[in-house]
Amino acid sequence: MRLLATPATVAALAALLWATLAPAHNYAATGGPRYAGRFSRPAGGGPLRVVTFNLKFAREVDRAIELFRQDPELSRADVVALQEMDAPGVERLARALGYDYVYYPAAFHPTAGKDFGNAVLVRGRILADHKLMLPHPSRSRGLRRIAVAADVEAAGQRLRVYSVHLETPAEIWPWQRREQVDAILADARGAGKAVIAGDFNDRDVVGPLIEGAGYRWLSRDARRTVGLFAWDHVFTRGLDQPPAAVRSGVVRDNRQASDHRPVWAVVPGARPL
User: Fold this and answer.
1) Is the pLDDT assigned to residue 245 strictly greater than 90?
2) What is the rounded CA–CA span in Å between residue 146 and residue 165?
3) What is the pLDDT of residue 13?
4) Which residues contact 191 (CB under 8 A, 6 or more apart)?
């Protein structure tokens, strides 16, 4: 049987090849693009609850909204760090769930065909925010990763929150990943209380490195957050809680909202402002 290369087939293959090999269009300006919204609803009080979730190109935002509404740990989150988002997806999720938010795209991603970046959502107030450009673009696309930092008030705390998405293992060397983490730690030195959460595309390099800088690794026991790997984590500094007081976990049934699973952590009785 002879297969004919029709114009439609050729066009489809060309589009697939372009998406696979095309370089990313990075947003190199530290000031933007920037998107923000205010939809925060009063929180119920109690401990500080943090969630991180990589939502895979923001393709299943409606499923993520239902997941947050139905899961008892996610529904009470005070702070949410999101990765692989676009601006419409962040706003839709924040509006539906009642969060203030700030979002910065890192780049226009050719595979997704849209913007690709990180967001911080909070039930409370965002006092200030900035985009942190991370070193070492990816080898194949030249994609620059970022962290989004927000100074927030939530659950009686004033703290800095970082939503982080480091490069994949195939695209940078371990020493380059360490330098990406070092850039975040350096930026956070001026903050008192801090949360660093996100998709680190690593566990064994990143965990000890951030712990060594004085952070508590709340999600140390998290397993299989994406496939067989534990790459999504939460770290805190300055919340003054003994390790036994902290609870954390992974939401196993993610309702097909992403290839990642949400990771949550609770710090009961963290010292207030």
Assistant:
1) no
2) 7
3) 47
4) 151, 159, 160
Are 99 and 143 in contact, with CB atoms under 8 Å apart?
no
Q: Are 243 and 268 within 8 A, CB to CB?
A: no
d(CA 77, CA 105): 23
Burial class (CB in 10 A: 0-12, 13-18, 19+), 152: buried
Q: What is the pLDDT at residue 268? A: 74
Query: Is residue 272 within 8 Å of 253, Cβ to Cβ?
Result: no
For the four alpha carbons of 257, 162, 197 and 69, in that order, the dihedral sign comes to: negative
Pick the CATH number of 7-267 from 3.60.70.12, 3.30.43.10, 3.60.10.10, 3.80.10.10: 3.60.10.10
Cα gap 167→135, rounded to integer Å? 10
Is-contact 144 28, C-beta < 8 A?
yes
Bridge partners for 28 per DSSP = none
Helix and strand numbers, DSSP H then E, in the chain:
5, 14
The whole-angstrom separation of Cα 18 and Cα 31 is: 29
Strands 157-165 and 124-133: unpaired
pLDDT digits 0-9 by tens, 199-241: 999 999 999 999 999 999 999 999 999 999 999 999 999 987 7
Query: What percent of the chain lies above the pLDDT cut of 90?
Result: 82
- Residue ranges of domains in the chain: 7-267
- How many residues are present in the chain? 273
CB atoms within 10 A of CB 226: 16
